[in-house]
Amino acid sequence: MTVLYKLRDYKEAYKFEKEHPKPIQWDEKYKTYVLSQGDGIQGIWFRDGKDGLVAEMIMSWTSNNVVRIDSFTVLPSHRGKGLGHDLVKETLNWATESGFKHLIGEARKGPSWKIFQDFGAEEVLTYENWNKTGEEYIMFKIEL
Questions:
Q1: Is residue 38 part of a domain?
Q2: Average pLDDT by consecutive 10-residue portion of the chain (144 residues)?
Q3: Using H for helix, E for strand and C for coil, what is the string for the chain?
Q4: Quick check: is 70 in a domain?
Q5: What pLDDT is attached to residue 57?
Q6: CATH classification at residue 126
């Protein structure tokens, strides 16, 4: 995959998102955006022409075979339109093409977890009161 933007730190990711993301491919309504910081972080964003950035996936890795999802977000105004599935599919394609064997992460119990299950996610453990939010999150893995 071609690296379109290099980051020095996460603060620049926010600047990048707000000021000038660069498109790498189009579909009928959404643009896909990618950024990269050396070999340690990768992000994919979806942008709606009128609403700006509407979904993001940020991954990181410290190993050649495991990539971890750090952030998976679809704005509430754009949920229920299949963007979560599209974003996970794009992420799995990128991870596979990049040579990773496993994808891991945490998902809130409910629609987010269901999306990952649709792509073969297996539950590893459940966090009760995750990060003191009162919500259950599921740690999962997907074999690529």
A1: yes
A2: 33 49 49 61 77 80 92 86 91 92 94 96 93 89 98
A3: CCCCCECCCHHHHHHHHHHCCCEEEECCCEEEEEEEECCCEEEEEEEECCCEEEEEEEEECCCCCEEEEEEEEECHHHCCCCHHHHHHHHHHHHHHHCCCCEEEEEEECCHHHHHHHHCCCEEEEEECCHHHCCCCEEEEEEEC
A4: yes
A5: 86
A6: 3.40.630.30
